[in-house]
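Appendix B. Chain record.
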Amino acid sequence: MTQAVPQSREEGRLKPLPSLFKGDAMAIDFASDLDTIFDTDEHAQTAIYIRQGYASAQIPVIFDNEYSTAEGIGEPGMGVPSPQVLCKTADVPSASHGDTLLVGGITYYVQEVRPDGTGITTLILSRDA
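Structure tokens predicted for this chain:
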């Protein structure tokens, strides 16, 4: 059984109920949180992002190059590198396949763009174009 959400009425019109949270105590500053996460003095490093047809830009990224196991049917797995970066969506608003990223002196090509809806985008990379 679902429970109805209480609403108040005035002259036949619905009015919102007063907020349960008063003041700014519950406000969340996501931009500040992202700045902390992508602070190059802490977790991130600077990369050079080159969008096709545009000037390059230095952006903070969190780089990961762990190995994944590629398995064939009935065969033992083989480790392959899976480079990817986390970055602020605002830094790569129109990222697309084929863009390049220079991280630690190595050029990577964007294979896939995965924005997560929270202001962070994962760029799946490859050393091959």
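Further analysis of this model is presented in Appendix C.
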